[in-house]
């Protein structure tokens, strides 16, 4: 208690074990964040992102295993180094597949949605799910066999509890947070909110939800069938002994090579340069799915252009260097069970089993804002919001080309990387946050 009083009185936000314990089988929280000279000794890193705005990050153990840990991030205005400015608005951002918080939301280093929100007075939190921290050279990843959507949902709620405790200890009150989940993070968000919907209000962490460019359920038979195909493929892989997806290693290599030697021949895509191979990932992401398994037709990360031979030649909405930084920041591993079970929830029938954690969608009552990009999941994400009990549901789906030109529309990652993302997505999001 003496340590708690010391840290809290100096502006240091201690992670309160009394709150963390009911949400996880983890040992008591061991780290803190906020405002004293001992922060570096406690493992808290700080970097300045823009004048007056800094990012803090630190590791938090969430279980007994070597890799049972997450990394928490806080992007906030400062009164002084390690002294966050007060804010009445708190948000937690959940990343999707492959890319952790910094790569997903701050690709390029000092730009991104968290900085924009912080500059406008929002206290922005985020996390790296535990699988993002497993190194590429891990000799054995069998421990990931049981890591699932529910694992990430539990860690997400724990991160929310830590953020709220930190905000309370630094004079911002103990109010609930708005949760933003991008891509797979949106599906994890639905799972977390469903779990919370069946808890007393005092044990809930979130008061609003922003699913970004994702769906969990669909009323389009073709999309449902694609999810069933993905489920069957990953279930077969899991049954054969695979427990982790390693596509992040390929993505990271492609991005790293394109940044270092853009014009050299690609070792992964014959006939392409390193830059062209990376642009292929951006502009034609759907080609990396098995036939008939893409989540939406012509799904892509970033809209772009092609030359006369159909080779990607440039990006239309995002700076190439930002996309390459995003690509290079990929995490090496992701639990196969998470991918399998998420697709099982979307498949919602044979051959997939009932996963259970999606049963409470109709009990979610928090205000919801859906954001979508025309070349990503776009309007297909709207259907899931109709299954909620929320009385306050709004949406913003941005498409800049006709439907027949969907291949060239804003992509899944343009929401965060695009040159016009501030006006198209971030400012409307900020207005909604301030109104809620």
Task: Show the helix and strand layout.
Layout lengths: L1 H8 L3 E2 L2 H4 L11 E2 L11 E6 L2 E9 L7 E12 L2 E2 L4 E6 L6 H5 L7 H7 L2 E7 L20 H21 L7 E6 L1 H14 L8 E7 L8 H19 L4 E2 L1 H14 L13 H10 L20 E3 L5 E4 L4 H9 L5 E2 H12 L20 E6 L8 H4 L7 E6 L15 H4 L3 H15 L1
Parallel strand pairs: 7-8, 7-9, 9-10, 10-15, 15-16
Antiparallel strand pairs: 1-2, 3-4, 4-5, 5-6, 5-8, 11-14, 12-13
Helix pairs in contact: 5-6, 7-11, 8-9, 8-10
Global outline: globular
Tell me how many strands there are. 16
Helix content: 25-40%
Q: Find the structural class using helix and strand composition.
A: alpha/beta
Largest sheet, strands/sense/barrel: 10 strands, mixed
Q: Ranges with pLDDT <50 over ≥5 residues?
A: 1-41
The percentage of residues in β strands lies in 15-25%
Elements, N to C (H/E):
HEHEEEEEEHHEHEHEHEHHEEHEHEHEHH
Supply the number of helical segments: 14
What's the N-to-C terminus distance?
A: 35 Å
Describe this entry's structure for a reader.
Helices cover 33% and strands 19% of the residues. The chain has 14 helices and 16 strands. The protein has helices spanning 2-9, 17-20, 101-105, 113-119, 149-169, 184-197, 221-239, 247-260, 274-283, 320-328, 336-347, 382-385, 414-417, 421-435; strands at 13-14, 32-33, 45-50, 53-61, 69-80, 83-84, 89-94, 122-128, 177-182, 206-212, 244-245, 304-306, 312-315, 334-335, 368-373, 393-398. Strands 3, 4, 5, 6, 7, 8, 9, 10, 15 and 16 form a ten-stranded mixed beta sheet that branches. A two-stranded antiparallel sheet has the order 1-2. The longest helix is centred in the middle third of the chain and has 21 residues, at 149-169.
């Amino acid at each position: 208690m003496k340590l708690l009083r010391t840290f809290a009185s100096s502006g240091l936000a201690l992670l309160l074990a009394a709150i963390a314990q009911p949400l996880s089988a983890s040992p008591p929280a061991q780290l803190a964040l906020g405002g004293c000279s001992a922060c570096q000794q406690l493992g808290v890193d700080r970097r300045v992102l823009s004048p007056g705005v800094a990012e803090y990050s630190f590791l938090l153990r969430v279980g007994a295993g070597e890799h049972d840990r997450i990394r928490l991030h806080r992007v906030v205005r400062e009164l002084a180094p390690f002294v966050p400015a007060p804010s009445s608005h708190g948000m937690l951002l959940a990343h999707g597949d492959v890319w952790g918080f910094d790569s997903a939301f701050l690709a390029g280093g000092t730009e991104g949605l968290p900085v924009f929100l912080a500059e406008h007075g929002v206290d922005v939190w985020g996390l790296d799910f535990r699988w993002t921290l497993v190194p590429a050279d891990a000799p054995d990843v069998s421990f990931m066999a049981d890591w699932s959507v529910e694992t990430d949902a539990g860690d997400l709620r724990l991160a929310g509890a830590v953020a709220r405790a930190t905000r309370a200890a630094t004079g911002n009150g103990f109010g609930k947070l708005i949760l933003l989940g991008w891509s797979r993070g949106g599906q994890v968000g639905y799972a977390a909110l469903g779990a919370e919907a069946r808890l007393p209000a005092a044990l809930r962490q979130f008061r609003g939800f922003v699913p970004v460019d994702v769906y969990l359920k669909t009323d389009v038979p073709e999309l449902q069938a694609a999810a069933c195909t993905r489920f069957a493929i990953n279930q077969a892989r899991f049954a054969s002994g695979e427990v982790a997806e390693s596509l992040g290693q390929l993505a990271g290599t492609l991005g790293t090579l394109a940044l270092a030697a853009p014009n050299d021949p690609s070792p992964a895509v014959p006939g392409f340069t390193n830059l062209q191979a990376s642009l292929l990932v951006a502009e034609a992401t759907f080609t990396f799915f098995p036939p008939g398994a893409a989540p939406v037709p012509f799904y892509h990360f970033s809209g772009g252009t092609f030359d006369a031979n159909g080779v990607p030649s440039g990006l239309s909405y995002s700076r190439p260097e930002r996309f390459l930084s995003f690509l290079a920041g990929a995490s090496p591993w992701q639990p196969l069970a998470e991918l399998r079970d998420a697709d099982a929830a979307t498949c919602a029938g044979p051959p997939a089993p009932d996963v259970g954690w999606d049963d409470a969608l109709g009990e979610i009552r928090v205000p919801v804002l859906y954001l979508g990009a025309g070349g990503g999941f776009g309007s297909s994400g709207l259907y899931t919001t109709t299954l909620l009990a929320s009385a306050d549901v709004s949406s913003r789906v941005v498409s800049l080309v006709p439907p027949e030109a969907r291949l060239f529309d804003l992509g899944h990652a343009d929401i965060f990387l695009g040159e016009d993302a501030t006006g198209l997505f971030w400012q409307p999001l900020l207005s909604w946050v301030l109104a809620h």
